[in-house]
Each structure stands twice: as C-alpha cells, then as structure tokens.
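A reminder from the course coordinator: this example appears on the midterm review sheet, so study it carefully.

Given structure:
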C-alpha cells in the first residue's frame, strides 16, 4: 500500500479483487500478526503484457504528437 500513492485502500482492494477474479493475479494470505497478503502476476497476465507492451511503447513514443494534436484542436475550437 505504501508504494501506491494517492489511492485509497478501498479503491486498491476493489481493483486487486477484480484482477484476481479475472485471473491476472493470485492472492495469498499469511496468518501472521499483523496479517500479511502477497500478490503475484499469473501466466495469463504475462501473456497479456506481451501483447499490450508494444502498444504502450508506441503510445509513450508518440505522446508529443498527441499533445500537439490536442493543442491544435483546442486552438481551432477556441477560435471558432
């Protein structure tokens, strides 16, 4: 939790449970004091990441083009 800034415990729990339900992560609870929970990525998630990573890399490479398009659009529509 301390590694995820700006996200409430409730929101984080909801997302983690959905990822677990989708089969993208596993959750292991350790009966310790204080209780400890560990999450791990599944093979299904690794498969998905292999497909999504090239798209993410493309989007990150072209961020300046998106920003330029936004600026041009906003300028055009403000003038209209």
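Designed residues:
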């Amino acid at each position: 939790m301390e590694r995820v800034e700006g996200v409430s415990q409730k929101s984080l729990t909801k997302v983690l449970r959905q990822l677990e339900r989708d089969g993208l992560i596993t959750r292991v609870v350790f009966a310790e004091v204080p209780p400890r929970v560990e999450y791990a990525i599944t093979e299904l998630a690794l498969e998905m990441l292999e497909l999504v990573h090239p798209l993410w890399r493309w989007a990150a490479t072209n961020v300046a083009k998106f920003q330029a398009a936004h600026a041009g659009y906003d300028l055009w529509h403000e003038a209209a």
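The two ends are 47 Å apart (CA to CA). Helices lie at 9-21, 43-61, 63-79.
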